[in-house]
Amino acid sequence: MSTPAEIAVAGGFNFDLTAVDGAVQMSLVADTLRTLKSRRLWNDDILLSTYPKSGTHWTWEILNMIVAGKAEYTKHWQNSAWLEYRTEEELEELASPRILHTHLLPRQLPETVWKQRNKVVYVWRNPKDCAVSCFCQDSQQVWRDGTQDKYSFMGSWDDYLSLYRDGYAPSGSVFEHFHDWHKAAEEQMICQIQYEDMIKNCVHEIRRIAEYLNRPLPEKTYVAIAEACSFSNLKHANENIKDQTFHNKWQQGSSGYFRKGKSGDWKNWFTVAQNEKFDEISEAKLNKTFPY
Predict the structure, then answer these.
(1) Residue 213 is assigned to a structural domain of this protein
(2) Candidate list 57, 101, 103, 177, residue with the active-site label
(3) What would the pLDDT profile of 260-272 be if each residue is shown by its tens digit?
(4) For this structure, is 103 an active site residue?
(5) Could you tell me the CATH number of the domain that includes residue 214?
(6) What rounded mean pLDDT belongs to the chain?
């Protein structure tokens, strides 16, 4: 019987994968993940958790601006603060308080996160839009394997959706991710944000995050942060202003990390059959449907 990682590779993923803690992950971070629980975080670290393509860059920049108290972009690229992909030495170069981000499950995180009660912000998004955005990124992203450039995913949209829906995509099941983080939020002081709510009223959600962090700001600053972190402005900043260390390559003509920044694009991708199957699995695993 094939393992989840083997199924993912056979389905079109073009890099080495393995299973860690029950979730499919890139093999290059497997050793880090197996020892991550014992890693010590700083008392003032702030952790951002998302499933891939759920507004990670957007929220991470907002968090940095709240901590700075002004609508000014950070110098370093967001991937430099990626908990599971950066070494402890690399993360120690970041100024305190560090805004770290992760795609991991609660049980995979350093135990100090919960013992110290670090501030944690969790952002979730309609998983159908996540699926579309993940496919567009993985099928256009270029990474280097030795001396060879490869696309992350080589299959079709239908191939991708089947793997994603069944929990075989990197980062594991989106349904497990939602379930475990919502459960953790019931037990811990976690700030939950919905991506679609940020689109509808970003200023309101920025205010909620700032109050959770005990860093209230003047109303005009919330407005300024929302404007600086609008899709077009943040895309420009990330591609033209920031230090590009840890930035991935993309095939010619790709939109890169910033594709559309909208809600509901899944309706342009899912067939009726795909949508019905996705809803069936979602309701079985989460006992809920999504409003967007």
Answers:
(1) yes
(2) 103
(3) 667 889 999 999 9
(4) yes
(5) 3.40.50.300
(6) 88
